[in-house]
Amino acid sequence: MPFAETFRIPKHRRHVPAARQNVRKTLADWGLTGELADDVVVSANELVTNAVRHCRVTLAQVEVRLSVQGTVLVLEVSDPDRDATPRLDAPGLDEEGGRGLALLVQLADAWGYTKQPYSKRVWARFALTQGSRAPTCAEAHGHA
């Protein structure tokens, strides 16, 4: 059975730091730190920011899910705007935004999105390297 943690934040940019902190805490609780944790936290920040910025559903919530599936850590960010699908753009040098997915491409081993009946889920996969490991059952449930 994979280890998993799911939480939701209101769709507002002031809640993005809380999502980032929650991801970092979950990874630390599972014993995942270092470069892998940094990559996942930055990726979560970008995906949550995109969901907050582009979701056109009023009073929506953004769901963040982390799971360990074998030797892979999966990050998923869902929002209820199934039609606002992510696009990898090439922003101009003077543009402030538009680089989040390009950064995700550099950090994750794979990424994509799926449309659900009433939402969309953007996901990223990160290989657990020898320097990182899957959490034990006690670590995953905060009993270590």
Fold and architecture overview:
There is one protein chain. The chain has 144 residues and is an alpha+beta fold. The radius of gyration is 15 Å and the shape is globular. Strands 1-2-3-5-4 form a 5-stranded antiparallel β-sheet, with helices on one face. A hairpin with a 4-residue loop joins strand 4 (110-115) and strand 5. The model is unreliable at 131-144 (pLDDT under 50). The chain has helices at 16-29, 34-54, 100-107, 137-140, and strands at residues 3-10, 61-69, 72-79, 110-115, 120-127. It has one domain: Heat Shock Protein 90 (2-Layer Sandwich), CATH 3.30.565. It is built from 4 helices and 5 strands, in the order βααββαββα.
Give me the CATH fold name.
Heat Shock Protein 90
Number of helices: 4
CATH superfamily caption: Histidine kinase-like ATPase, C-terminal domain
Question: If you average the pLDDT, what whole number results?
Answer: 85
Helix content: 25-40%
Note the run of SSEs as H and E.
EHHEEHEEH
Strand order of the largest sheet: 1-2-3-5-4
- The gross shape turns out to be globular
Strand content: 25-35%
Query: From the 3D coordinates, which CATH architecture would you assign?
Result: 2-Layer Sandwich
Multimeric state: single chain
Uncertain segments are 131-144
Tally of extended strands?
A: 5
Provide the structure class: alpha+beta
End-to-end C-alpha gap: 18 Å
> Sheet bearing the most strands, described?
5 strands, antiparallel
What's the domain count? 1
Radius of gyration: 15 Å
> What is the CATH domain class?
Alpha Beta
